[in-house]
Amino acid sequence: MNVTEYLTSWSASYKDDLVNNIMPFWLKNGLDRKHGGVYTCVDRDGTLMDTTKSVWFQGRFGFISAYAYNHIEKNPEWLEASKSCIDFLETHCFDKDGHMFFEVTEDGRPLRKRRYVFSEGFAAIALAEYAAATGEKIYAERALEIFKRTQYFLNTPGLLEPKYLPALEARGHSITMILINTAARIREVISDPVLDRQIDESIAALRKYFIHPEFKALLEMVGPQGELIDTCNGRVINPGHCIETAWFIMEEARYRNDDNELMQLALQILDWSWEWGWDKEFGGIINFRDCRNFPPQDYSQDMKFWWPQTEAIIATLYAYKMTCDEKYLEMHKQISEWTYAHFPDKEYGEWYGYLHRDGSVAQPAKGNIFKGPFHIPRMMIRSHLLCEEILKSR
């Protein structure tokens, strides 16, 4: 492989796809120029199917628009989109108790709350990235305030409804891993010991509770002390989440002057999760596996969703940057080529979100409450930057 030629080509491709496909699609079809914020429930051609607004995506697109502005080009329309999402969040998406809603109407009336605090995390990173774009410290301070409130919700018994009743005590991987990235994004614009402490605590929890060498796996749910919960739900491996965790840790290792111990942890998670996730028959990263190789319970277990592919693209490229091991560049080639052969919609733009195991389209909509402009543009921005960094270091 001609590495310079390969990375130059992908760097240009990621940037071009972001600037000329993904961002224009959502600015045209998603941005609500009347009420503010963004719609995500759009059909294949961008037709609005449902005006319900995902609170996650007000934060997610608020972040992405500012992230693209900060790292790709100073497009004022992107910064305006970020501000529109942030203003909608602040005006409509917080309940009186400080906990955020999950879904609201197009004009911001609350529809649903959930026990999770992911809405808070996405709101916080949007505010932090907007602060980086504008230099307005008030947004960084607000991001930190929301983060601390999120910790309060998580650490105060009884404030958030547990996933299970008392008969089953458990820890979840998803909130543990997302707090690493959330704290790291806020740390870019404001300093506070609580951010580094949360990252340390999350990484320690991953090591102590979720990593199970006997299965060569990072589990999604474990008992209070990390014990295997030997049920269908307790044996779940989510390769996409694990691979995302791997590159979050790589980013932290880099922040800590290329901390080798952290890097080895990240590479171990990536290697194990790739082995569980890569579909050797059809290609792509599969949704769920059972650590004892029983049939997974989830109905979408053998499907290929958009976001695990994007996380694998970032993680393999990051691993190559950190190690110069061409094994990871070959993995990057596998996942990038498979993803770009199956997910992009060459007629209407953007990407499909849901494929069957063989790569055929399961349903053609470009967005819903859970899919919208986040994982795909984040991958394009991060991967473009990684390609450029690697090329400059050669």
TrEMBL record:
Arranged from A to Z, the UniProt key words for this protein are: Isomerase
Q: Which is an annotated Pfam family here? A: GlcNAc_2-epim
Q: Does the keyword Isomerase apply?
A: yes
Q: What's an example GO BP annotation here?
A: carbohydrate metabolic process
Q: Which domain of life is it from?
A: Bacteria
Molecular functions (GO terms):
isomerase activity
By sequence similarity, the record places it as follows: Belongs to the N-acylglucosamine 2-epimerase family.
State the PANTHER family in the record: N-ACYLGLUCOSAMINE-2-EPIMERASE
Can you say what this protein is called?
Answer: N-acylglucosamine 2-epimerase
